[in-house]
Amino acid sequence: MNHTKKVVALLTGCVFLLLLAAWAPGKKSDKASSKSAADASAAVSANDQQINNNMQAMFNQGRQIFRYDTFGDEAFWGGALHLHQAIAGENLGGVGPGVSPKTALSVGLKVDADALPASLVEQIKAGKVNLDDPATTLALLKLNSVVGVTGFFDKQGKLQGMGIQCALCHSTVDDSFAPGIGHRLDGWPNRDLNVGAIVSLAPNLQPVADLLGVDVPTVKKVLGSWGPGKYDAELDQDGKALRPDGKSAATLLPPAFGLAGVNDATYTGWGSVTYWNAYVANTQMHGKGAFSEPRLTTQQFPIVARSHYNQVRNSDDQITSKLGALQFYQLGIPAPKAPEGSYNKAQAERGKALFSGKANCASCHVPDLYTEPGSSLHTPEEIGIDDFHSSRSPTKKYRTTPLRGLWSHQKGGFYHDGRFQTLNEVVVHYNDHFKLQLTDQEQKDLVEFLKSL
Ligand code: HEC
Ligand code: HEC
Hints:
The protein is mostly helical. It has helices at residues 2-23, 26-68, 74-80, 83-88, 101-106, 118-125, 134-142, 167-170, 195-200, 206-212, 216-226, 235-238, 273-284, 304-307, 323-332, 345-356, 380-383, 423-433, 440-452, and strands at residues 111-112, 149-153, 159-164, 171-173, 181-182, 184-186, 230-231, 251-252, 290-292, 311-313, 377-378, 398-399.
C-alpha cells in the first residue's frame, strides 16, 4: 500500500516535471523544433534533388538508347545479313545498285533534319544534292541522321556494317523540311516503314532462312507480304507467316507513347513494357543481351528449339543495363494531343457521353488510361474477332488498346492487323457485335470523340 502510494507520487512528480519541462523553455523548444523541421526539409530536398538528378539523367540516357543504341545488333544486320552492302552498292564497295535517298524515303525511312548541318540543308533546298546517289545515303548515315539506322564506317569512310534501333519502327518525323525529313517524333509508329522490303534487300538472308527452317525465296515471299507499317514480332518464334485466310500474319507497328500507367504491353499482352523491350532487343533486333521466358515452349513456339530464345545469355551483354533508362524514357513520352480543328468539338462532347454510357466502351477502355488498370486481356470472342493472333501469344488473349493519340496513327487502319480501315469501321463493328443500336449520328459522334483522344 505504502509502496504503491510512493510509486504513484513518484509518477505524478515525473509527469509534472515532464509537463514543466515541455512548458518552461517554451520558445526555445519551438525554435528547436522549427530548426529540426528545417533540417528535415533540407535533408528531404537534398534527397529530392538526388531523385530529380537521377530522373533527368535516366531520361536523357533512355532517349539516347531509344534513338541510337543498337545493342550490338550490327553483328546481325551487317555482320550476318550484310545489309550495309546493299545500301552502299557496288560502286562504294557493296553489292547491287545501292540505296539512294529517294529509294530509302520510298520504303519509309525517315531523316532527322536536326542532324543535318545548315550548309547541307541549304544545298538540299537549292536542289544541289543528288538524291538518286547512294553516296548521299552514306553521307546521311555518317551524320547519324537516318532515323533508327546506324552505319558503321572504317577509317577510309567505307561502310562496313550497320545496326538498327527502337526508333526505326517507333519514331517518325514531322515532315517539316520535306516529306520524310523533319524533326523526330519519338513514340510515333512509322506507318510508312516497309520493314519487309528493307530486310529483303539483304544480300544474305540464309541465317533467317536457317532459323525459320525454310528456303530464302520463302523468306523473301514472307517479307514481301508485310507491306508498309507492319512487322511480325512472333514469326521467329512460331514460324507462322500467314493467317488461315492467306493474308500476312504481320501486325501494325504500334505507338510507343502514352504507355505510362498501362500494365499490359503488346496487342496480346505478352508482359510489361520493360519485359517487351528485353524481348525485342534480344529476339527481334538481335542485340546482345539476356532474356528469360519459360512460356516460349517448343510446343507453341517450335522455332525456339533452334533459337533458344527462351533462355538468352550473351557474355557481352549490351542490353540489360539499359532497360531501366529505356523504360523510363518511354513512359515519359506522352500521347500527342489532337490538333485544334482536327475533330468536331460538339460531336466529340456527345461522343464522350456515349463512350461511357450507351456504347459502354469505357467498361474496357477506362478513362483516362483508356485500357483497364490491372488486367486488360480479353478473349477473341469477347471482342468479336478471330483467334489467330491471340493464339500466337502465351496469353491467348487480346489486350484492350490504350486509345490516346489514335488520330496520329490512322494510316494502316485499326486493330492489331489493321483489319478496320477507319475509326468508323471500328465503331460499326462494335455496334454490330455488342448490339448497341447506336444511330448513325451517335456512331459519328463516337468517332469524333475517338479522334479527339
Ligand atoms: C522492326 C520494328 C520494331 C522495332 C525495331 C522495335 N519494335 Fe517495338 N513493336 C513492334 C511491333 C510490330 C510491335 C507489336 C508486337 C505485338 O503486339 O505482337 C511492337 C510493340 C512494342 C511495344 C508495345 C506497345 C504497346 O502498345 O503495348 C513497345 C513498348 C515497344 N514495341 C518498344 C520497343 C522498343 C523499346 C524497341 C527497341 C528496343 C522496339 N520496340 C523495337 C515493332 C518494332
Ligand atoms: C470487352 C472489352 C472492350 C470493349 C467493351 C470495347 N473495346 Fe475497344 N478494344 C478492345 C480490345 C481487346 C482491342 C484490341 C483489338 C485488336 O487489336 O485486335 C480494342 C481496340 C479498339 C480500337 C483500336 C485501337 C487501335 O489502335 O487499333 C478502338 C478504336 C476501340 N477499341 C474503340 C472502342 C470503342 C469506341 C468501344 C465502344 C463502342 C470499344 N472499343 C469497346 C476491347 C474492348
